[in-house]
Amino acid sequence: MQTFEPSILSLLPAAVAIGLAFATRRVLPALFLAIISGGVALWLETGDIAKLDFITGFMLPALGTEKFAGILLIYLWCIGGLTGIWEKTGGALHFAEVVGGRWVRGPRSALSFAWLMGCVFHQGGTVSTVLAGTTVKPVADAHRVSHEELAYVVDSTASPVATVLPFNAWPAYVASLVVGTVPLLASTEDATLFFFSSLPYNFYAWFAVLGTLLFSLGLLPAFGSMAAARTRARETGALDSPHAEPMLVSTSPALDPKDDRLAGYTPSLADFLIPIGTLLGLAVIPYVVGSLTGTPHNWINQAFAASVMSAMAVALIRGMPLGEVIDGFVSGCSAMTIGAIVLGLAVTLGEVSTQLHTSVYLVGQFADALPYVALPAVLSLLCMGIAFSTGTSWGTYAVVFPVAMPFAWALQPDPVYLQVCFGAVLGGAVFGDQCSPISDTTILSAMFTGSDLMDHVRTQLPLALGAATLGMLASTGAVLLLV
Questions:
Q1: Mean pLDDT of 379-403
Q2: In angstroms, rounded to a whole number, what is the distance separating the alpha carbons of residues 367 and 352?
Q3: What is the mean pLDDT of the chain?
């Protein structure tokens, strides 16, 4: 591909996607037009008119990747099929009623239950949003918790929790980016240990998780559009705004255990706990054991596949006809179609950003010398902007960490200072990923809580910005006090 020096045109697709998403409240055309604008920007940057062919240049390379194949396999077939089977068996609803029913007495306890589930399912942003949203939505709906509130709690306990309870793939990934960038991180083991030692300085994540808990308990008041959503749900029972268009469409009515369609099938905890146990067991145990032996394994794809197969097996063993099981699987996959299209366009937009060097351009704007006290806050802002524009925290890490670590070390060769800057990059990227309407985590949070995507983005953004502001102030204070 022809190389060029990125300019402000590199920001055009992200600006189109985000601007149109907010202005029209329709993400599909916003993403599609952003991809087209990427072809225009690349043509203007390179002078090659062939770059206007956005299908060949962007969509085919992106949709033919292993990443998008994983989206189809995991999010469309495995997660969609699993939720469809649970809808047939009533497994998730039964779990929520039995376990949540002992915990939940009203909207506050429903939201705190959602917060707890978000912390329990802390394997990563997408995994957490799917599992927490699926588990909590039935009981939260029963207690008039608006879908905007639930989506915020689920989203804000996904990636933030994954970075402060990092028994997952995050430390290994980040370590691979920072190893060798400064003398302090000479080996992969050094870089991994540094990740854990920097946890206290990941201020945004801590404020986001704590703020979400306070919000759930009613100790952090809702305001603006979130307050309106809360009032609407409590007073009228309307869980969505009148103009909402949720991406996850229920394909069958609420399950009644006495429904003749199920031929007497009675839900049990096994319908939910065995698939969930299979999922978490295969996702967590190989990684933990491998980490102890120096060979961590990421079996998350295999875990989801095994989970949906175990859900089928449990339903068959407990007497559900094979045809009903398959119908549930297919129905669940069908309900995921719109979400899969959105995720596919989001992946394509990521390819656009890569070819236009969007992240490189943004980093370059902040590459001049800065007072060392200001660097953590600037890194946070930079990562917030990149992740919000591109919809990916891990992609932001890949660009910023290799630059930020040696830059910080050159300004102030102090281990604590490096930890503060490290935490600023971690938290800033998580904020942008969490709040961006083109992020898979944001999309899935809205999808599995039944929320309209743009309603979710609009209502959570002020609360997340509050946590981000506190995080930047805390990182600046930490430098002044400790370095």
A1: 82
A2: 23
A3: 84
74, 304 in Cβ contact below 8 A? yes
Cα atoms in the 13 Å half-sphere on the side-chain side of 285: 8
* Three-state secondary-structure class, residue 69: helix
Query: Collapsing DSSP states into helix, strand and coil, what is residue 376?
Result: helix
State if pTM tops 0.90. no
Q: Which of 434, 430, 428, 432 is nearest to 471 (CA)?
A: 428
On whether the CB atoms of residues 108 and 218 are closer than 8 A, the answer is: yes
Closest CA to 39 of 63, 56, 20, 26: 56
CB 276, CB 304: distance < 8 Å:
no
Retrieve residue 274's tokens. Answer: 């065995």
Long-range interactions of 401-408: CB distance < 8 A, separation 24+: 401/174, 401/177, 401/178, 401/181, 401/425, 402/177, 402/178, 402/181, 403/363, 403/367, 404/379, 405/178, 405/181, 405/182, 405/185, 406/181, 406/182, 407/367, 407/375, 408/372, 408/375, 408/379
Based on DSSP, count helices (H) and strands (E) in the chain, helices before strands: 26, 0
Q: Which is nearest to 421 in space by CA: 315, 357, 219, 429?
A: 429
Task: Give the model's pLDDT for residue 261.
Answer: 47
Give exposure, 131-168, as e/b (b: 16+ Cβ within 10 Å).
Answer: bbbbbbbbbbbebbbbbbbbbbbbbbbbbbbbbbbbeb
Burial label for 323, CB within 10 Å (0-12, 13-18, 19+), is: exposed
**Residue 223 region by backbone torsions, left for phi larger than 0, else alpha for psi between -120 and 50, else beta:** beta
Identify the pLDDT of residue 304. 83
Show the tokens assigned to 331. 């129905």
